[in-house]
# Entry
Amino acid sequence: MRASFVLSEIGVGLRRNLTMTFAVVVSVALSLALFGGSLLMSDQVNTMKGYWYDKVNVSIFLCNKSDAESDPNCAKGAVTEDQKKQIQADLGKISVVEKVTYESQDEAYKHYKQQFGDSPLADSLTPDQMQESYRIKLKDPQKYQVVATAFDGRDGVQSVQDQKGILDNLFGLLNGMNWAARMVMALMLVVALMLIVNTVRVSAFSRRRETGIMRLVGASGFYIQAPFIAEAAVAGLIGGTVACGFLVIARYFIIDHGLALSQKLNLINFIGWDAVLTKLPLILATSLLMPALAAFFALRKYLKV
# Structure
């Protein structure tokens, strides 16, 4: 096959259907940018889970005198020294517990003043109104229920709280947004495929006389189809390159510079450049193969003589 012929036919097809080719490039770029963005969002959520789940604590809050008057869980009165010793001893017997930190009422009051000192309620609270607590670091954050089952409802225990539950709500929201992006991506991919098929059909129809002659003089089907397939692949590859550019620019301006979230949100462990760069070959391969396959199946009917 003469490469010069194929290249010339690609140029002719792209120029002849310039408007539709531009639409294909834009739709492929947007759909693959969303595709890459959803993959990076999944990586970001997994990175945040690994970072934050390793830091979450289970808190056992103990009853104080105020709770004994208002909370049904503390109906038997404030926690006693014997109950505290028993709780601490039982915590030492649980294999999933890595570390236990005790926080007294005075320490809880001090921490509250540091975090919420500007609150109108801060001046009305006293140390004896704060709750003593045990902050428990687990070896496996998924094993929260082991601690909850052992201590929830015990005398002297007001409640057992798992910080992981708060994070689960956040990650659930992020995952929901990620799935929404994937649905939009799927819709854009369908639009891109329809545009590719229509572009190839229009190109084949406009050159039906030339392809008919080539068929009559004995040209193979692949020789006739190759320029059209390559034309769709080139348009898709341009769109994939633009999508890669979108992702690189977004990572640069959103995380590193511009918005500079990595500097403003120090508590979030953002994905690195390696996560972005590993997605680019996949996006380029998809942008090349998807239009080529769509063109191949579309041509099976429209290049019959």
In short: Residues 163-206 form the longest helix (44 residues). The chain has a mean pLDDT of 80.
